[in-house]
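User: Ribosomal protein S18 acetylase RimI-like enzyme, Hathewaya limosa:
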Amino acid sequence: MLNLNLVVEDIEVKDVNKNDVIKIYNSITKEKFFVGNKEYMNIEEVYDRFLEYYLTEGEFFAKFECEHKFIGFLRGRVEFKKSNKVWINCIHINKEYRNKGIGSKLIIKIIEFLKKTYDIKVFYTGILNEEKDNLRFWKKNGFCIERISKEFFDINEKKKDMLILVKQ
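Assistant: Predicted structure for Ribosomal protein S18 acetylase RimI-like enzyme:
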């Protein structure tokens, strides 16, 4: 578990705790948010992701709160090697808070925090090839396509490519 606690303007970025699992589940279910290789996760699977983070060194799982209201979350991991790097598994902002620059502000400040605190040099994320809005978000925040993993995802028995994006 890697702590990720900071404030970005009026948004608190805080480590997820057991009580937040239901908030995350409700958020991804309400908005049909894609996580992993499927379009739906049950509450047990969300809780398993929480336990993975809690028990694994280098994993981070943070919630975003504005005026004590849950507005999204971020999950990823740090790899401490010759060149320290971060994999951002997912970032999710609740629908009513999107297209206001919040996601960009958060990602920029979180990257700054990770660079300063953990000497991170490289940041990666992977997205579904057909997620054009997602690609636009990451490119706007300084990420570029490094490679394509062909047929990485198997969604509803259809193979789909993953774009690997990088920021250095």
